[in-house]
């Protein structure tokens, strides 16, 4: 039972971790809390349905195309919304409210175009992977493998590539990075592309894990994603990865009967947020965040 719950937690946590990194890298560079990010995920999930179900492409190909489509949406919104707002020196609250408005526009547009009915991917629902005492559905197996590869690639990109080093430099001090010769606008654009790719991937994986989903998909998992960002340390990509995985595992293990009988699965998010509050009481900057003096 414990190993099964741990495996389920890794599946859930992997999806949360990928999305949390997408939010965290944008905040780290632009100090923008993108409340519309959940709807980026929904857009990716529904685009995946278009390629996988409507056009009949394999799920892996559909996921890649959904990632590209979501990255394109992210770039379009950067030029149409976020860059003009930054040019007008919009403050933190203005940017946050703009993201809330964008979330409503995207969600209702998806409702209008795709309808409110639930969608599923063309994946064999009866296929099961058995590893010892652990059983994973075909969708869960795909999700955990793809998410693991995505997490490793993101970590390598940030740690080992020139682009990753420039992203870290801009996140530390954007004006100083610009003076040092870093083309900050290009770094910001790449950040939005990476954030969009992660949103598209996380959206498809979330749809696979939940089996059936509707246009509220992204909104329902947005709060756990933000909780993972805060838990790991706001603005820290590595912290978001660890925070997402830890949160997913905590949510699933909270139902383990050996832990005082476990909690009702309905209250798994409550347990996760209780753990978040405890960590913030002990370490307000999060697990990987840096303490700041204001």
Could you walk me through the main structural features you see in this protein, from its secondary elements to its overall organization?
This protein is mostly helical and 294 residues long. It has one domain. 73% of the residues lie in helices and 3% in strands. The protein contains 11 helices and 2 strands, in the order H-H-H-H-E-E-H-H-H-H-H-H-H. It has helices spanning 2-30, 37-54, 59-87, 92-114, 138-160, 162-172, 174-179, 184-210, 217-232, 237-253, 268-282, and strands at 128-131, 134-137. The chain has a two-stranded antiparallel ribbon. A hairpin with a 2-residue loop joins strand 1 and strand 2. Helix 2 (37-54) packs antiparallel against helix 3 (59-87). It is globular, with a radius of gyration of 19 Å. The model has no long low-confidence stretch (mean pLDDT 88).
Provide a concise account of the structure shown.
With 294 residues, this protein is mainly α.
SS summary, helix count: 11
- Helix % is over 70%
- The structure class reads mainly alpha
Helix-strand sequence: HHHHEEHHHHHHH
**Beta-strand content:** under 5%
Total domains, how many? 1
Task: Provide the spatial order of strands within the biggest beta sheet.
Answer: 1-2
* Main beta sheet: 2 strands, antiparallel
CA-based gyration radius:
19 Å
How many strands appear in the DSSP assignment?
Answer: 2
Silhouette: globular
Separation of the first and last Cα atoms? 47 Å
Task: Give the assembly state of these chains.
Answer: single chain
Low-confidence stretches: none
**Overall pLDDT confidence:** 88
